[in-house]
Each structure stands twice: as C-alpha cells, then as structure tokens.
Amino acid sequence: MQLKHSIIKLYRFLRGKSPYITRTAKVRHEWVGSSNGGFYVAPEYIHPDSVVYSFGIGQDISFDTSLIKKYACSVYGFDPTPKSIEWVKAQGEISNFNFVPVGISDKTGELEFFLPQNDKHVSGSLVDNTVTNSENTIKVPVKDLKTIAGELGHQTIDVLKMDIEGAEYDVIPGIIESGIDIRQILIEFHHRLYPGGNKKTRDAINLLAKHGYKVFATSDIVEEISFIKSEE
How far is C-alpha 189 from the chain's CA centre? Predict the structure, then answer.
C-alpha cells in the first residue's frame, strides 16, 4: 500500500499535478471521513476532551461525525455558504457538533464570496479561482482564528481542519500568528485551481515547517496534507 501511494505521488509530481511532499514526522495515522471529505489524523492525540475546528463543511460532515463517534470529542463546524447552512440545518441536532455559519479569513467583517460556476455545486470561495464565478458573489460574515477562538473560549485546539477552496493560502499566516496552541492542522490544498499553485502549496508548507509543523500524512492525490506540531 505504501509503495502504491509513493508511485501515485511521484506520477502526479512528474505530471505537474501536485508538489512532491515527503513525511517529516513518523506518527501513527488513520483516515477519518468519506473518501472525498476525509483527512488523515493522528489518533493518539485525540480524546473526549479534544476540541476540533472544522472549516469548510459543504454537504459532507463525515469527517466531523466520524471523529465524534470514535472519540466523543467536540467538533465546531464553520461554513458561510448558503447551501451548506441550509443543508446542515436540515440534518437536525447532532450531539457534540456545533455549527457556526461564518467563514475563516485573515480579517473579521463581511467579505465578498464567490459562488461556484456550476450551480449544482455547493462550495464557493473567498478568492476567485478557476471554479468560481467572478460575476456571482454575495457578502458573507468572516472572522480570523484569534477572534473565533476568543468568542468560543478556546485557548487550545487539538485538531484544525480546513477545506476552504483555495482561501487557505491567505489564512495560514493568520493561524500561525494567532497565538492559539494547535496540535494538528489538516489542510486540503487547492493548487490545481491556480497558475503556479504547486509553488503556493510548497511555500505554505515551508511556512508551517518554520513554526514547528511537520507533515505526517498526505492523501494519494497530495491535496489533503496533515501536520502535527513538533514537541521538540
């Protein structure tokens, strides 16, 4: 399985589809969530008292509900997308799942939000890219991580997951500068949506590395990348 994973990563790198990312931390990990909406986590650092922030819900909470079911932890889900808000409300109350209809940004206020080109799709983005419609925008509430954590009363976050359709590149510096103690950061990188996207992802990974975050797992397509804060 590991050999197959390495071959796929090399193939995608040689085709220019993704940067070649190597693991810099050896941590036991497991996939949590659906095949399209999941991430690798380091399970030994998740427990019933853990706090999980899940940015970018869309219409798939398999990652969130799987964590809750397995670890009985508290998950806070965030998404300002109208279709996502409506969908989450339709699911009814879910134990230990707390939904907040705001997006994460490098600032706090209301920002222009680009809706998807395909009306059947759910997720939009705070940044215009190849799958958004630059002429179809709405205003949505956003907050930076320091503000969000302060309002919720959290000084530490055990797992922070982001699938925010390309806005991750603008948000990562603010997460680092927030001063919030975060053990695991799980990010879906959207390098495929931008010219020079592979470099943007590589630069983001290097920035995280400078602040002690090591890669412990990547998905086969090298878009979902999991980091853990070094104890050294």
Answer: 8
